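Example with several molecule types.
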Amino acid sequence: MKTKPFTIHKTVSCVFSAAALLILATDSPAAQITSDPLPSWNDGPAKKSIVEFVTKTTKSGSPDFVHVSERIATFDQDGTLWVEHPMYTQVMYCLDRVGTLAKEKPELKHREPFKTVLSGNREAIAKMSKEDLEKILAATLTGMSVDEFRAEAKKWLANAKDARWKRPYTELTYQPMKEVLAYLRENGFKTYIVTGGGQDFVRVYAEEVYGIPPEQVVGTVGGTKYGYDKDGKPFLTKEPKLLLNDNDAGKPEGIHLMIGRQPCAAFGNSTGDRQMLEYAKAGSGPRLSMLVLHDDANREYAYGPAQGLPDTKVGTFTQALYDEAKQKGWIVVSMKDDWKTIFPAGTSLMPTGREK
Amino acid sequence: MKTKPFTIHKTVSCVFSAAALLILATDSPAAQITSDPLPSWNDGPAKKSIVEFVTKTTKSGSPDFVHVSERIATFDQDGTLWVEHPMYTQVMYCLDRVGTLAKEKPELKHREPFKTVLSGNREAIAKMSKEDLEKILAATLTGMSVDEFRAEAKKWLANAKDARWKRPYTELTYQPMKEVLAYLRENGFKTYIVTGGGQDFVRVYAEEVYGIPPEQVVGTVGGTKYGYDKDGKPFLTKEPKLLLNDNDAGKPEGIHLMIGRQPCAAFGNSTGDRQMLEYAKAGSGPRLSMLVLHDDANREYAYGPAQGLPDTKVGTFTQALYDEAKQKGWIVVSMKDDWKTIFPAGTSLMPTGREK
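Resulting structure tokens for the full complex:
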């Protein structure tokens, strides 16, 4: 509670500056202000590096000019484009789905790890092993048709709310990153999500939330099986067969599989993005690799353990990654210092809780 | 030899009409002629169905209007966009590569199926089993870096020539289908190749040849492995691990994996495309599914065995598929009757051989 006045102060200031920008953007004589493509970014090396990168790669005659067909930018999702703490949204979906599943298959009520999930014991759920979590993911993400899954996930996303902000998860996106997406697209870049999350799950909302169509979402993905319903109509069933684990080295592998070009800009926030950033940076010509550091406990969360921030299992950003970034010229974005606002105006300006 | 005069006559007539169209297109008062989006198609039900489909899906206010984000069209490659007889181009590449491979690994000279390939005995090569062919594909398409593969395939494509036309394979594309690609794209459709061929192989030339970028090529695809060279630079190695066999049911599965939307138009030429056409047609709203029938031995090839055409292992078009197409409203395109010309002007107008 003791930081509440500060939070409110910040919030009010955000509302004010957002409103001011809105006015300027729609009807302003001050063209030099409205032409700022990244209004939610504070002036500093991070913002400067983005603008310089876009300028030099798109300016005709520039020695660093990149042909429009090669303008590929890849973005991690959880923790880079939206909130991932205290737990990935998709995991929340899967845990919620266990209840529905147990109604269809009552025997699950007495079988682990489903029994633990159904107990609602948060501490026990948080302690579940990776294997247990994988069992839950397989049970809740496969076995149904692609269309059924899409409808279920869509319905859940429309109703579920984040416990801290009491807002739909789809509103907890980062405004500064949305501006980067829009800025890159306006300059001919094709923007992709490259996520450790489920490809089909992220596809459900990526177009509406980020303007990124399903065909530009690369994620952890399983196989499907083509079959027919009783009327002979074909449909695809989601199979528990992993094709790609789109984390770590899986990210460049997924980029090759789905895009077939080396990105010239990549954005992440955790060790799971290391290889993607390295891969993007390794190409010839101008390259931009960026890492978002969650160092803002007041406005969002603070975790690392880089730079003495609290350690976490969700979106780990190690000191080794931080040091590598500094050494190799990857830009580390401080949410606290580089971002004027965190969330889009009108969605999450009133945090009703704080990081635990 | 006996049809040569006929071939020449046809060829001359093609040159003439192509030249005439070129003149009309650049400087013509006859707007109604130049506005034909499919000049290499004869007037008939096939051409009509394409034009009607595009018109009704793109005309604002039409009850069949399709939002631009949903305008996805998928094309098989071998036999649909370019020549596949007497053998798929990629298989020719793999057979050619065995020679190079044997120089690097002399022990292959004494090991089957490499020994047979190196013998040059066409009859024995043609009789190779599926398993033997798979061994050759694995040996020539995997084990190298993605960049090395691309460079090798590119070099081969620049030099290799089709035995009948003495032309690079990349020139043996179908002009009428190129017009369909361009026509759809001009009307907001995103055009994809969905091929049983290797995704990485087709990506090497698809952009230059069809204007289809690597990220819009879906094919049979294996995994890659991320690693580092001696200088610590990252690269991807092509692994002999199959992720997707993009044939038959694998085509809709591949479409879901790579695109995530049901296409509203699909084009194929063989039983391997059946499920893709069925999948496209099964969606709601207007749909177009088309099959190219190779019934023109003079200008290209004739094979089926549908409609009494000679049977083949390469691009089989069964009578059952033909009957299903007729029953379900898929359009069968007769190369002989529907296409004014087969190849783009200036590339393959002078056939120096005929189908065996």
